[in-house]
Design goal:
Length: about 800
């Protein structure tokens, strides 16, 4: 034991820098892996924890409070909320607030913090009628922030009959208009996106309710928690309707959709943890092997002094255990301190705690697993190094690098020649350095960065180009009033008259049955310009018996472009199904309620209406089609003409029809993947960190291993600057090798991965390669490599020839 202790102390004294590099490398690998694993667990449970703090099981609407519902045996808690009826709100926001999904809630002060989670700002002062909380959807989509003033007109009591007849969209409020100042941003369960249109809400104070309610019309909603949760909803629904509830909504059903929208984020973290662990294992194995090779240079001498092979193995394993424990401890600390940074996207909205979190099962058990893994990885290098107790002879077959020979031929300075040789040549005998791992690390790092740059640029281009994800239109106008009313006809006529509108498409959502499977379908017809839909392959339907399907729907039905499918509609149950030709693959806008980017079918409007027994073919078919869209509550998609004329046209239409206008928004899963949690960028950054740690360890080992060579150079007249330049040239060469190989490979990998990703989503694949980003990656690689070389270069430059050559 005394021998082992002495050998460990001596090894640490002479090689503490390389030991420290190993500890930092293990800390990075274990810390990032543990952090990603903990982030996955945290993301996966975020909404469950949100529901425990702020969740309800159901709510119902009613004209007046129904106290008997709160007393039902299936109900455990009840929060009665007033809903004053308002018109379209206005504010100095980035875009108009969508009235269709706008609501005002009067929540009892004691229940407010249970119904909502405060995201920023503060809770309103209940004695101030002007203060409100705004939903995070208003902040995200409309630019509302703390301090924003929103003017809300309310209906008068004389308009109560119109409100009860559900004719709010056509009301011109005759009641007071109130200016409300936002003091906080909140998130409630009914506002989380999960595929439907978002809700835009304000939460007022009791002071406003006292002054406003006598001057307007108030209906009510009651949020309840059920004794048996989701399983008791059916019983509650029937009992609530029997007592006078107008509509009962299952919040638990919506909560399931919210959890499904968040879960890909958790899975992304776990995939990132697995990839980090795999890459980290490769890097750590190389570092341990490199360290064992360096330390084995003295094994021949120690063996001659009587140290057994078993003792040499134990010394190496003790060193491995030491760096494993210290490095993993650092990794646990890293994972703890980065925990607030992993709470992003919908998880940040849902997680009751967004600060530092110490995940005991992951960090403690994962830390022990990391220590064990590093120790096991170090066993074979220790045994192999101890097996070679003789000094290695020079390899007569080792040839100098052609690049070094070329530099000699052009008269490069000695510092450049030596630095390039150190980077590309392993060396001989006791000066041998495993340089392959450093070169591989540089190539992997540059490849990852370039691939990430291509993927990230393509994803940014996708999220900023609505046409690619199924929204080749600027806005759409929905038919809010059921029936073929004069107002709806006037709106369509106004769209068609406006020359600032370049393209108009009439659309109607239906539920056809395709090959026996019920699907969400859209019947569309162009009124001006091309059909406003996006085809990823084939073409959009043109004839009455043509259909284009989403990528997911194609896969589910087991068909392809060119297949024939049997289509029927429930409205024409007496008619035989007809055969439709699949002519293309399309992308579906999230606002069209088809269930996702790749779900659904697009028909021509005449094709689906004829199948349903409406609008037979003839000279008046288009007029019949438009009338059918208006009567059934469809929508009209519009694309403005380019330039000022189009912007003015849209602004005018928005003022004329504020309650009918709707704005496109990117799909939630794209926002989570690309903007809230950029997993490709994170993985690229991890590879860069690992590559930097590997390069740093190589430099430290190289300076230590070749100290005698440095001593000879200084004895021959090298000054400090030349010695430092040798280290700089070594790192620059490693970086240039990574750039030359990694840039083209990274671009190719990025294009391939983006193509697969876009195909899996069902969106139109357009790859973006941003030249300046690639150049920046190359330049940053050289700069970072030379920054890493500063420490080892200073150590080498300050060393004294006498101490370096003492053993010669």
């Amino acid at each position: 034991m005394a021998v082992l202790t002495m050998l460990l102390r001596a090894s640490f004294r002479h090689r503490w820098r390389s030991w420290l590099s190993l500890c930092l490398l293990i800390a990075l690998v274990s810390g990032l892996t543990l952090a990603a694993t903990a982030a996955g667990r945290r993301s996966d449970s975020a909404f469950t924890r949100y529901e425990a703090a702020h969740g309800y099981d159901a709510f119902y609407y009613a004209i007046k409070p129904i106290p008997k519902i709160a007393a039902l045996p299936v109900v455990t808690t009840s929060t009665l909320v007033g809903l004053p009826t308002s018109g379209t709100p206005t504010c100095a926001c980035s875009r108009p607030i969508n009235f269709d999904d706008f609501g005002i809630f009067e929540v009892p002060p004691k229940q407010l913090t249970h119904l909502v989670k405060l995201e920023s700002g503060r809770l309103p002062d209940q004695s101030d009628p002007d203060q409100v909380l705004a939903s995070f959807t208003l902040a995200q989509d409309d630019g509302v922030h703390v301090g924003t003033v929103i003017r809300v007109p309310f209906v008068a009591p004389s308009q109560r009959s119109a409100v009860l007849n559900n004719d709010n969209a056509n009301l011109r409020p005759d009641g007071p208009t109130v200016s409300l100042r936002v003091v906080g941003i909140e998130a409630s369960e009914i506002e989380f996106p999960f595929g439907n249109s978002p809700n835009y809400d304000l939460y007022t104070t009791s002071a406003l309710a006292r002054s406003l309610n006598p001057k307007t019309v108030v209906v009510y909603a009651d949020f309840v928690q059920l004794r048996h949760g989701a399983t008791g909803f059916s019983q509650f629904q029937s009992q609530a309707k029997a007592l006078g509830a107008l509509a009962v909504t299952d919040i638990d059903n919506e909560a399931t959709g919210i959890e499904h929208s968040i879960r890909p984020q958790a899975v992304g973290w776990w995939i990132l943890a697995g990839l980090s662990a795999l890459v980290g294992i490769v890097v750590v194995v190389q570092a341990l092997a490199r360290q064992a090779t360096v330390e084995s240079e003295a094994y021949g001498t120690l063996s001659a002094l009587g140290v057994s092979r078993r003792q040499l193995v134990l010394v190496s394993l003790a060193r491995t255990l030491f760096v494993a424990v210290v490095g993993t401890a650092g990794g646990v600390i890293i994972a703890f301190f980065v925990s607030p940074l992993t709470v992003v996207g919908e998880v940040r909205l849902a997680d009751p705690s967004t600060g530092f979190v110490f995940d005991t099962p992951v960090l403690l058990l994962g830390g022990l697993a990391a220590i064990a893994a590093v120790f096991v990885l170090g066993v074979w290098p220790a045994i192999r190094a101890a097996a070679s107790t003789r000094p290695s002879a020079a390899d007569p077959t080792l040839r100098p690098s052609r690049i070094v020979s070329f530099l000699v031929g052009i008269g490069a300075p000695p510092s450049a020649l030596i630095g390039v040789r150190h980077a590309l040549e392993r060396g001989r005998g006791r000066n041998a350095i495993p340089v392959g791992s450093a070169l591989l690390g540089a190539v992997l790092a540059v490849t990852a960065l370039c691939a990430t740059a291509v993927f990230g640029a393509s994803l940014t281009h996708l999220t900023s180009t609505p046409t690619l994800y199924g929204q080749p239109f600027d806005e759409w106008f929905s038919v809010n009033q059921t029936g073929y009313s004069a107002q709806n006809v006037q709106m369509v006529a106004s769209l068609e008259r406006n020359r600032g509108v370049a393209d108009i498409t009439a659309g109607l959502v239906g539920n056809p049955t395709i090959d026996g499977v019920a699907e969400s379908g859209i019947a569309a017809q162009s009124l001006r310009g091309p059909l406003l839909s996006t085809a990823t392959s084939g073409h959009l339907p043109q004839g009455p018996n043509e259909v284009a399907l989403g990528a997911t729907t194609l896969h589910q039905l087991g068909v392809h472009v060119g297949s024939l499918v049997r289509v029927s509609v429930a409205a024409a149950a007496d008619k035989k199904p007809e055969m439709f030709h699949v002519v293309g693959t399309v992308v579906f806008s999230p606002g069209l309620t088809t269930g996702g980017l790749g779900n659904g079918a697009v028909f021509t409007l005449p094709g689906l209406l004829v199948l349903a027994g409406h609008c037979p073919a003839g000279p008046h078919q288009q007029a019949c089609d438009v009338k059918a869209v208006i009567s059934a509550g469809g929508a009209f998609l519009v694309r403005a003409a380019p330039g000022t004329q189009g912007r003015i046209a849209l602004a005018r239409l928005n003022r004329e029809y504020p309650s009918e206008v709707n704005f496109p928004s990117p799909p939630t899963n794209l926002v989570n993947f690309g903007q809230a949690v950029n997993f490709p960028l994170i993985f690229g950054a991890i590879l860069v960190l690992f590559g930097a740690a590997t390069l740093l360890h190589v430099l430290v080992v190289s300076v230590t291993r070749r100290r005698r060579e440095v001593g000879l150079l200084k004895a021959l007249g090298f000054v400090r600057r030349q010695v430092a330049l040798c280290v700089s040239w070594q790192t620059t060469t490693v970086a240039l090798v990574g750039i030359v190989i990694g840039v083209p490979v990274g671009i190719a990998v990025g294009r391939a991965v983006w193509g697969l990703f876009a195909h899996s989503l069902g969106v139109l694949s357009v790859t973006e390669v941003t030249a300046w980003v690639i150049v920046a990656v190359a330049a940053a690689t050289v700069v970072v490599a030379n920054v890493l070389a500063i420490g080892p270069a200073i150590v080498a430059a300050r060393s004294r020839p006498a101490s370096l050559l003492r053993s010669e």
